[in-house]
Amino acid sequence: MKKSQRLKVIIDLHARQERDALEALGISQQKLQELQAQLENLQSYRLDYLGKFAVRQQAGINITQLMEFRAFADKLDQAIESQQQTVSNHEREVQRARKRWEDAHQRTKSLQKVSDLALVEEMKVEQKREQAEQDDRAARSGRKDGTGSA
Asked: What is the DSSP letter of 60?
């Protein structure tokens, strides 16, 4: 088996790993978008809640309602903080997935270059062999013509 053929098997394996890494990156990016949307929804809900509470507060509320508001607002703040941490953690995961894909892509590209060089070298060797055969045939043909006419 020629070197370029052996390299093709390796390249195919690395290309499959690269596709898998790209797929994992896509899934990770999609998950990040979902987490960011959840964070935005929490933040939006908090703003709406604060707005509605401000309107009710102007109309006058009792201490129990105020304490319930503060408790719920604290829970919302905790949920937002937790979601922000989850988003940050997943952003790092996306970066790691991107790095894995970039590394896999670079390996595949490098191996393809090596394979291309091996193929070029094999073609040069084959051309030299064919040229040598043609030269040999021409030399034999010339000897036959030279001995037959003398």
From this structure: -
Closest CA to 89 of 100, 81, 78: 81
> Any idea what the Cα angle at residue 92 is, between residues 88 and 96, rounded to 5°?
165
**How far apart are the C-alpha atoms of 62 and 9, rounded to whole Å?**
76
**How many CB atoms within 10 Å of residue 72?**
13
Query: Taking the chain, what is the end-to-end CA distance rounded to the nearest angstrom?
Result: 48
Rounded CA gap, 43 and 56, in Å?
Answer: 20
pTM: 0.72
d(CA 9, CA 113): 14
Token pair, residue 61, equals 């509320």
Q: For residue range 60-117, what is the model confidence (pLDDT) as tens digits?
A: 888 898 899 999 999 999 999 999 999 999 999 999 999 999 999 999 999 999 888 8
Q: Are 76 and 17 contacting, i.e. CB atoms less than 8 angstroms apart? A: no
- CA diameter of the chain: 130
Cα–Cα dist 142/147, whole Å? 9
